[in-house]
From TrEMBL:
It is found in: Cell outer membrane. GO terms for cellular component: cell outer membrane. Residues 1-27 form the signal peptide. Residues 51-62 have a biased composition (Acidic residues). This is OmpA family protein. Residues 121-243 form the OmpA-like domain. Residues 39-50 have a biased composition (Low complexity). Keywords: Cell outer membrane, Membrane, Signal. It comes from Gracilibacillus kekensis. Gene3D superfamilies: OmpA-like domain. Its main location: membrane. Residues 29-67, 200-244 are annotated as: Disordered. The keyword Zinc-finger does not apply. It comes from the Bacteria.
Length: 244
């Protein structure tokens, strides 16, 4: 009996190891998370982070794609007092204070520049060459002149003062004929401005014929000067009160 007990004491540690090993294996089966790939949790976290990044980028793109027409409309509706202060037009500074929006301001300044406006003692004088308004030796406005008349009316509307329209010719032909032609052209411009809404009682028209040239009709050698003649055939429109 003593011998059998001795044998059992030899096997007891081995049996204990088997029991412990079995218990550990059972515990592993009861906890399924312990059998997962250790990288799985990291992959899930990365996936979640990527989803969050995509959402942030999507929100950013949506913010960038928000139409800005609302802000454009607000800017276009802004009314401001525009003051022409020491802005050189031609050779003289014009000064005026008028209420207008930015687009109207730009159009007025473009008209003053296009028609070589210069300041006078009480206003601004714009010069329109013959070829903008009339065909040669004609007092009927060309269809293309309508745009120039619109521009003139826009400048005139910036004041409530009078407007003087003066027609000029070169010195070809008889003086009486040139005088009549220049008067008819000035009146044609007056009537066209009236059709655009400018009050007739604000405007006066007169013709000067060839009496006030701004360029030489002939060269120093006596030959004809077509460019000079072209400059002399013109209509001058003075908007009184513009630079007051």
């Amino acid at each position: 009996m003593h011998s059998n007990f001795k044998k059992m004491t030899h096997f007891f540690p081995l049996i204990l190891c088997v029991v412990l090993l079995t218990a550990c294996m059972n515990a592993g089966e009861d906890n399924p998370e312990s059998s997962k790939d250790p990288n799985a949790s990291s992959d899930e976290n990365n996936s979640a982070n990527e989803d969050q990044t995509e959402n942030v980028e999507s929100d950013s793109e949506n913010e960038q794609n928000i139409p800005n027409s609302e802000f454009v409309i607000k800017e276009l509706n802004i009314q401001s007092e525009f003051t022409i202060t020491e802005i050189p037009i031609g050779s003289i500074f014009l000064k005026s204070s008028i209420d207008m929006d930015s687009s109207f301001e730009k159009e007025v300044m473009e008209t003053l520049t296009e028609f070589n406006a210069v300041g006078t003692e009480d206003g601004a004088k714009l010069t329109l060459p013959e070829d903008i308004l009339f065909d040669f030796d004609s007092d009927e406005l060309r269809p293309e002149a309508d745009e120039a008349i619109d521009q003139l009316a826009q400048v005139i509307d910036t004041t409530d003062d009078d407007v003087t329209i003066v027609g000029h010719t070169d010195n070809k032909g008889q003086d009486s004929y040139n005088l009549e032609l220049s008067e008819n052209r000035a009146n044609a411009v007056l009537d066209a401005l009236a059709d655009k809404g400018v009050e007739k009682n604000r405007m006066t028209a007169e013709g000067k014929g060839a009496s006030e040239p701004i360029a030489e009709n002939t060269n120093s050698d006596g030959s004809d000067n077509p460019e000079g003649r072209q400059k002399n055939r013109r209509v001058e429109v003075t908007v009184h009160g513009f630079n007051n």
